[in-house]
Each structure stands twice: as C-alpha cells, then as structure tokens.
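fold-stage: in
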Amino acid sequence: MRVLRHHPPPLPIYVSSEGQLMPTASGHTKAIRAKKVIGTNVKDPAGKKIGEVEDVVLDKESNNIMFAVVGFGGFLGLAEKYHPIPWSALEFNEGEDAYVVNYTKEQLQGAPAASIDELTRSDGRLFREQSYSYYNEPRYWEVAE
C-alpha cells in the first residue's frame, strides 16, 4: 500500500522595495486579534475618516477573512450603512492609526451595503460576490490549488 501525502503549496515570499523580506504582502505581522481590528477607523487616501470597522466576517470553509464590515453614514447608529469591504482592500497605516482604503466616501456610498445580519445571510456569499466585484479585488476562494 502506498501512502500519498498532501503537501501544501509553498508560501509566497514578499519582498519590500528595499529588498527586505516581509511577513505579508503589506509588511504587517501575520496575526492580529479581531478585537484590535474592530473599532479601528477607516480613512480615504487623503486621510479623511470615512467610517470604522464594525465587524470581521470569517469564511469558515476556506479559513480566510471574507470581508470587514465598515460602518458609516449614520448618527449614533441610526441610519448607518454597513459595507462589506474585502480584507485585501484594507491597508493599515500606523501613522494614521487607521485602515486606509483607495476609495472615496462617494465610491463607498455606491457600494454594496446592508444590515450586518443581511451581510451574513446565505453564509455571506451574496455580499462576498458583490463586494469583490464592486471593488475589483482578487477572489481568494477561486485561487487554483
């Protein structure tokens, strides 16, 4: 009897523009606690606050982060819209102590949005598809094995 062992694909290697090895594509550590992410401001490229991370939705089938739920547009939680933003679209800026997205508030206003409960219906797949299409982000669930 032959035993076949599954070997995971090699991990990608990230190198900065200065030639330094980085733990992730953005250079950030590989691990972060969810409670540290939730409540963090989200800013546009000009540094203007456009919202904050309200939640993080996990894809239990692939062990990936499906999307961050970013809230903006309400006052004291009233009429607030929740936007599923692909995790890959968020870049943490230590100087701003915030996540920065390459979108304006106006672009986000036209993006998919719903209540947090609606975002996670049907395992979150509907809004996952809509948000990755809208933001034109690579679909982590379609990566070739």
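fold-stage: in (second)
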Amino acid sequence: MASIANLTVKDDGSFEGTLATLMVTAPIAIIPNGRKVKDSEPDYRVISRKNGYELGAGWVKTSQAGAEYISVSLSAPELGQIFCNIANAPGDDPSKKVLIWNPPS
C-alpha cells in the first residue's frame, strides 16, 4: 500500500495536504460536499488548491468490520483514474491522515 498524500484534518471536517507521486506534486483539499442531495452523489469533493480544479470525489463507506472510512476516486490527465482511501497516518495524532493508493488487481 502506497501513501500518495499527507493530510491534515481541519475543524470544518475537510482535509488539506499535498498529493505526491513520482510525476505530480500538488496541494489538495478534500472538502465536504454541501450540495449533496442524492445518495449517489459524493460526500466529498477533491479540489486542487493551486487552481481550484476538481480532481475527484470521496464517499463515506462502511467496512465489513463496521468501521467508517472515506473512499476516494481521483482523475486527471497526469494521473489517469486512481482509487484510494483516507487512513490514519502513522503515529498517534488524530489530525494527521494519509491517502492510500489502491492499485488495480
């Protein structure tokens, strides 16, 4: 499992950090979708903090063990489409998260 972003949890429920791959380094924000009206719409929007472009979306899901997590889909010409999850960062700081890339099987 590869970590592709370090994130900080903000007071408003959003996340901010830096997406970093071998070819891309970009400041991002994952913000709650305040305009959600249907269950099929994402719970979060992933936005480039550099230019404001939307890079993806996130959905709150429940694992088989009953734990909630956020599943994220990113899409950009530089990335293609990738899937990842927000997880706790190493250490004990609950305000620190990472974006874990889920490579295709």
